[in-house]
Design goal:
This protein is mainly α. It is 61% helix and 11% strand.
Length: 111
Amino acid sequence: MTEHHVATVWRSHPELLVLNAVRLGGFAETAAAAERADLDADTTEGVLLDLGRVRLVERTDFADATGWILTDAGRDRLTALLAEERGDSGAEPTLTDAADRFEELNASSPC
């Protein structure tokens, strides 16, 4: 009998996606955060407003743009969400193995 393996597609929670999109940009307008998070603009705006209410992000002006930045609490929340997702998704062992192999290769690299 042939054994079939079905790959599971993991979809991160919008809160994690939006926090990470803001982190990656350092400063992100709503549209840019939506594009980075691969979410629609309305969902992203709603998440940003919710995150702003609990002070995980702040809306600020920079030059001629208005956008979002992470607060210290937002960085902490993102770190916690990423750790939770690594465990829940079952990816932790694979990520740990890849990081260990990278460290071994990096340590043996003649630099």
